[in-house]
Design a protein that fits this description.
33% of the residues lie in helices and 9% in strands. The protein is built from 16 helices and eight strands. The strands form two sheets. The protein has a five-stranded antiparallel beta sheet. The protein is globular, with a radius of gyration of 29 Å.
């Protein structure tokens, strides 16, 4: 060891009477090594930050990469979200966490489906481009659905999404993004944050309001404060870039843009059925889709429409390939999307009407808290009327438990403000016969909670006398 050290010392500190090239050689070596490291290190760093590396170098990433290529964040690199925009040394420290993934991959220690559990705070990622404190106003959203009859009847649901938020100092402070500008904390009992029995709101004066799911059996005294999470962008926008749509939504979207022709008799029902069926392998799925094409070949519709039907089945194959990944055990059921409240709990994780405070007041579940009352129209409707909330509501509507009370006590008195033809029906002939409301199954809402019914019994308005 001492001999080696002596040689190194003589190399870098040769005798002063040595030839000039020997005196210059150590510095030349250092310069060459430094330039090589610097010149090669920067491209290597940039490559490992690229979407090509993140999406294709690892065999666990095909599902995420496929969804990413169809997302609104296609021009955002992977490291901007998963590492965050930060100084180099901060990024370097965070990227060392990738050694854990490399170790797990090398020794096959990971489990499918892959779930991300170590995301950076939204303030270091999302909010480097988006500013929730400046959001205000509303946004029109139109959602196309197709029926399951032979004619595939199309209906459109119009919603005015209250995407505002901002701060009260700017005169806003209401809307969906209110959640990111106020201190809202929650406790989840599962790794995907789908079961939330406890919510805490820090009021402007510093006091706390606590809400507990009355059916969860959660005991606040046993709460571990370290497990509380503060709401931020990704609490709701958890699949903003890597979304795997359910078959019904995928088929609706493809039919709306004509990739699957709505003219094909019964194609909506058959396409959804084929794509919703679980298959052991991709080959089985492709065979089932081909069999659907063979079915249409036996019908009177096929002559002259063969190309149309073939295009539809090819689109179905594309839908399957971007939503089901057998090797990684990923499909539309493995990664719930927290936007909405139909296909997964989403908003109803907290706004289900069962999260009550100590005064039996719920986290509001009111429909028009986040969007207008849905307006349903079909192809025969020239004009769709969307309700804009003017905030002149009767006293009964101001009760935080209003929707659960309305669910049990609506009657002819609604005519004071609304049209009530086919009251509680689904004919869309009046405000109170809305098929988007009464014709839907709200699986994740608390309408069927017997405990809640007993608590709210005293709050149900006294029935008015029959006129």
């Amino acid at each position: 060891m001492k001999v080696f050290q002596d040689r190194i010392r003589r190399f870098f500190f040769p005798p002063s009477d040595s030839p000039r090239w020997i005196l210059v050689l150590p510095y030349a070596v250092v310069i060459v090594l430094g330039l090589s490291l610097f010149g090669g290190g920067i491209p290597a760093w940039e490559y490992t930050n690229s979407t090509e590396f993140c999406g294709t170098a690892c065999h666990t990433m095909p599902p995420e990469n496929t969804a990413y290529l169809r997302s609104a964040h296609l021009n955002v690199t992977c490291e901007e979200c998963h590492v965050g925009r930060a100084p180099f040394f901060t990024q370097f420290t965070r990227k060392t966490g990738g050694l854990r993934e490399l170790y797990s991959m090398t020794f096959n220690l990971y489990e499918y489906p892959i779930q991300a559990h170590r995301l950076q705070p939204a303030v270091d990622t999302c909010e480097k481009c988006h500013r929730p404190d400046t959001l205000s106003g509303e946004k029109l959203l139109t959602i196309a659905h197709f029926g399951d009859t032979l004619t595939n009847p199309q209906t459109n649901i119009g919603l005015i999404m209250k995407t505002g938020g901002g701060t009260e100092l700017d005169g806003y402070g209401t809307g969906i993004h209110w959640h990111t500008q106020n201190q809202v904390y929650y406790y989840a009992t599962d790794s995907l944050d789908q079961a939330i029995p406890y919510v805490r709101l820090v009021n402007d004066d510093g006091s706390l309001t606590e809400f507990v799911d009355i059916d969860s059996g959660f005991n606040v005294s046993n709460l571990d404060e370290a497990l509380l999470k503060q709401m931020d962008c990704t609490t709701c926008h958890n699949r903003i870039t890597h979304n795997f749509e359910i078959p019904a939504d995928s088929v609706d979207e493809s039919m709306a843009r004509g990739a699957i022709s709505p003219e094909i008799p019964g194609i909506h029902k058959r396409a959804v059925e084929v794509l919703s069926t679980p298959y052991e392998t991709r080959a089985e799925a492709m065979k089932a889709i081909d069999e659907l094409e063979e079915y249409y070949k036996s019908t009177s519709y096929y002559p002259g429409n063969g190309d149309q039907i073939h295009a539809a089945t090819e689109e179905m194959k594309a839908i399957y390939d971007r939503t089901v990944f057998h090797d990684q055990k990923v499909d539309w059921t493995t990664h719930p999307n927290n936007i909405g409240h139909f296909n997964s709990a989403g908003c109803y994780r907290c706004h289900d009407g069962k999260h009550l405070n100590n005064q039996d007041q719920a986290i509001r579940m009111e429909c028009n808290l986040c969007h207008s009352i849905p307006a349903v129209s079909n192809e025969m409707d020239l004009v769709t009327r969307l309700e804009i909330d003017n905030r002149t509501q009767p006293e009964s509507h101001l009760n935080p438990n209003w929707i659960n009370l309305h669910y049990r006590s609506f009657n002819y008195t609604c005519a004071k403000c609304h049209t009530i033809q086919d009251l509680g029906g689904v004919s869309n002939t009046s405000f109170c016969s809305n098929s988007a409301c009464h014709g839907s199954v709200f699986t994740f809402a608390g309408f069927d909670s017997q405990t809640l019914h007993e608590i709210l019994e005293s709050q149900i308005p006294t029935p008015p006398p029959t006129p």
